[in-house]
Amino acid sequence: MNPEELLTTTRTVRKRLDLDRPVPMELIERALTIALQAPSGSNRQDWQWIVVTDPEQRAAIGDLYRRAAQAYKASSGFAGKLFADDPQRASVQQRVGGSVEYLAERMGDVPVLLIPCLKTGSATLPSGNQAGLWASLLPAVWSYMLAARSLGLGTAWTTLHLSYEKEAAEILGLPDDVHQAALIPTAYYTGDTFKPAARSPLSEVLHVDRW
Fold first, then answer.
1. Residue 128 pLDDT > 80, yes or no?
2. Residues in CB range of 145: below 8 A, 6 or more apart
3. How confident is the model at residue 88 (pLDDT cuts 50, 70, 90)?
4. How far apart are alpha carbons 67 and 81 in whole angstroms?
5. Mean of the per-residue pLDDT values of the chain
6. Is 20 exposed, middle or buried, given 0-12, 13-18 or 19+ CB atoms closer than 10 A?
7. Which residues contact 98 (CB under 8 A, 6 or more apart)?
8. What is the percentage of the chain residues whose pLDDT exceeds 90?
9. pLDDT recorded at residue 8
């Protein structure tokens, strides 16, 4: 697959994750090795990667995710409720909402749960430029997802479990100065019909020189 195809067909995979097929750790390590080539502020490389494969650990993290997803579903910002006054977008959002609910019930069954983290040296996050802080991790997370796609694996970028970040840290045994950024379920996917998603045109979001 060429770079353009990779970048335009790496989709969030929820309903098509294969929950029964084990994922070799070698594939995860290969994807992470590629991810470590991503930019890192001042070349600090303060990223840490928690790969959860133990069934009990996955179930515990999955339970936190399910609880957070229930609160999210009840909120006005739930994906399935957005753009209700636009029939075309509403139908898409409802499908997204349905897939969110599906994954919420099965997160603990996904063969690999990846939790990318930053080690900051402090139990509290520094004030000031949070964008700069997380920019030293999040590009690597996306690189992991692209690498996983190129290796035949599906992923989804999720953050709902961070409503219970402390509980997750206890489950994972994380030190106080290690902060979680996301939860990336990873598995083989079923079917192979991924294609570019419908997006608003560039002309609606592009600004040249000033707003």
1. no
2. 10, 155, 157, 184
3. confident
4. 19
5. 94
6. exposed
7. 80
8. 74
9. 96
Per DSSP, the residues of the chain read --HHHHHHH--B-STTB-SSS---HHHHHHHHHHHTTS--GGG---EEEEEE--HHHHHHHHHHHHHHHHHHHHSTT-GGGTTTT-HHHHHHHHHHHHHHHHHHHHGGGSSEEEEEEEE-SSSSPPSS-HHHHHTTTHHHHHHHHHHHHHTTEEE--B-GGGGGHHHHHHHHT--TTEEE--BEEEEEBS-----PPP---GGGT--SS--
| The pair of three-digit structure tokens given for residue 9, joined into one six-digit string | 């067909």
Rounded to an integer, what distance in angstroms lies between the CA atom of residue 156 and that of residue 18? Answer: 13
205: DSSP letter: T
* Residue the block writes with tokens 């402090």: 122
pTM above 0.90, yes or no: yes
Residue 172 reports pLDDT greater than 80: yes
What's the average model confidence in pLDDT over 41-70?
96
Q: What is the DSSP letter of 64?
A: H
Q: Concatenated DSSP letters for 115-132?
A: EEEEE-SSSSPPSS-HHH
Average pLDDT over residues 137-162: 97
Structural tokens at position 12:
């969030």
Tell me, what DSSP letter sits at residue 37? T
